Amino acid sequence: MIIRRLHIITAFIIILTFLPAKRIFEAKLPIYPQQDKILKSSKYVCLTFDDGPHFYYTKKIVDILKEYNVKATFFLVGKQAQKYPQLVNYILSHPGCKIANHTFSHKNLRKLTQIEIEKEIILAHRTFLDITKGEDSLRVIPYLRPPGGNFNENLIKILQKHKFKLCLWSVFSNDLKCKNKDELIKNISHQLDSSKEIILLHSGNQITLEALPELIVLLRDKGYDFINIDEIEYELYNVN
Questions:
Q1: Which residues pair with 43 in a beta bridge?
Q2: Is the pTM of this model over 0.90?
Q3: Catalytic pick from 94, 106, 125, 202?
Q4: I need a labelling partner for 211 at 20 to 30 A (CA). Which of 5, 56, 59, 226 fits?
């Protein structure tokens, strides 16, 4: 846990260097409705699913979230959304789900120019808005999770320009490398040491699907309320 906290401090110093006047993580975005911050408990968790929509697993994940009445945020890839627009709308068929940005083509943003970074973010966001027309588009929120957690000064400036927020994670489930659901649940459980957690999961993974019901029960037993990423009051979440 000491190493994890050192990661937080290091990342915090980096971001303060880039944004001396104002942290991108604080101010509300005026172009989107304010969230109701009256929550039921003092412990909150946000389940996040990256890399979707997946042609097979996304619908099954949403069905579990509906069954257990759980909120979650899906960080979608623009190219995948173009392939499976019906699944983008299926995510939003559950009123507890929101969609955020995982770039258009899942490239390492640290290796791109400012123009290329901007294109990755804006093209993905416009793709989501085109698919989710009407009131549902309000649940396409301006939050970006860069692939691999890779970000730099160029990305921070672009996010600030377009009023996006950077979102990483506090719990890295390592679900893509887990051998079974018990290993995945154990990985997550051992990292739960805060009253506010953001759990990184992936959409296209059988182990994640199998573990999800038990994970939801575990988190509820530990006293966590499920919220969306734009409802949590956070300062910084690190790559651990």
A1: none
A2: no
A3: 202
A4: 5
